[in-house]
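Inputs:
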Amino acid sequence: MTSWRVEVTPDCIASGVCLALAGDDFALGDDGRTHPLREVTEEREAVLDAAASCPMEAILLTDATTGEPVDF
Amino acid sequence: MPESLTYPFPPAESIFHPSPTLSALQKSEPIARFSTADGRTGWVVTRYQDVRTVLVDPRFSRAEASNPELNLPDTGLGQATTGSILGLDPPEHTRLRRLVAGAFTARRVEALRPRAAEIVGELIDALTALPQPVDLVEHFSLPLPVQVICELLGVPAEDRHVFHGWSDAVLGDVTTDPARIAGAFAALDAYFRKLIAAKREQPADDLMTALIEARDERDRLSEDELVRLCQTVLVAGHETTANMINMFLLTLHENPEQLNRLLTQPETIPQAVEELMRFVQLGEGSGLVRVTTEEVELAGVRIPAGSAVVPLMTVANRDPQLFDDPDTLDVTRSAGAHLGFGAGVHHCLGAQLARMELQEALRGLLARLPGLRVDVPVAELRFKNGMIVRSLHELPVRW
Ligand code: HEM
Ligand code: HEM
Ligand code: SF4
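Outputs:
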């Protein structure tokens, strides 16, 4: 099982797309931006869906061991 | 006990503010029950945080809104979006949305900005050659989004005029004869099937060709889905944007000191667009209904499973909990959190595109026609009958 490092960049506009798709993985912060709930997570379809659907391409996924970007 | 609320909700007294009845609910009864004349019931939600929850929380379903067994109140929205992306829940929704999301990202939209600015310039050149007053709807607000979306999608410019009747029937008057709406859908359907066949023969560098590839090579999209997706993108993209442009201008003319600020500081236009998106009441106070898939407790109110829940984005955008002095237009505030594009999985697919078009439209109009003014009193403006989105027949302007 691969682990991913999850990052949300300051480009986030709080559209809530990822919150709806992967509510166990992302949450809205007091700063009005979304943040990952865990910095590293097991690979998960919901997180992939969120990253692929983000209108700002603000969700960055990388392989936690190799640092390679995850394709979606 | 508050008085019982009936749908259709009491109309707004001004085109610039929500109906006072609905605004009052925010304080007195943020999760309020309503009923229709034929005795069906639902819930209407008006506070910012609660509206956001309804939009984001997957227990509020859009797909169930077209379930005929639930005997939901007919708020005039149900059948319209059945089978479209706006009528699906995840995971079906996710598959479709992922296919198109890439074409509408902020990055892709930035690449279209120079072309949009060029279209703005061409439209202003053409309209300034006409005798005044000029109808801004016909010569600017509508052609801008139609031209942009047609170029993005790959719809030939010559065919543009045929969409107007269709979108009027579809996004239009809730009192329209259902047969007319069905006829409009059938015509649009036939048109797109023909166009898709033509693009199969002759692929182009456009969204429709990309979607056809997703269908033909990877089999991720059915033919019906492909047709429907193209239609939805076309329909959702122009009536909304066109009327937003109209409402922006009307709103700025009601607030001349704000207009002046933009004229002297055009670099603040992007921020002003967010505030205008927050402030403008594009809809008349209905909203696309959601249905609870299980019992949900929202702000202390227990909503049973299978209930219709109507989130009022336009009222939520005036919530004092989130925005100070919410009924005042202030183009210097940070209004980015507004719900004008919704939130959650159905967050407007075209939000970045619409933002860019609105910014370029304002930039072009303010720079080229700083003296632009509406030629009729607000009270005499004619909005299309029973229209969902506040939609103007015409907007005569001088400069
Ligand atoms: C200022 C103009 C616009 C406004 C105010 C607007 C507003 C909205 C809102 C509020 C929603 C969510 C509805 C809901 O969840 O109940 C939505 C969805 C949508 N919008 Fe827009 N929109 C605009 C322009 C556009 C444009 C230019 C496009 C074209 C690409 C577009 C395409 C869509 C689509 C396809 C959806 C459904 C998304 C889904 O279900 O996943 N919109 N829009
Ligand atoms: C392909 C079909 C359709 C699409 C993609 C679509 C898209 C949208 C979008 C993007 C909005 C948000 C605009 C806003 O509120 O700012 C909206 C609002 C709305 N639409 Fe549609 N629509 C479709 C068909 C229809 C039809 C046929 C009806 C009614 C007969 C309808 C009724 C409404 C209503 C009542 C609203 C709420 C406006 C408000 O905010 O008060 N829609 N629709
Ligand atoms: S989908 Fe993207 S823009 Fe929307 S809340 Fe998540 S990270 Fe932010």
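Remarks. Residues 6-398 of chain B form a domain with the Cytochrome p450 fold (CATH 1.10.630.10). The mean pLDDT of chain B is 89.
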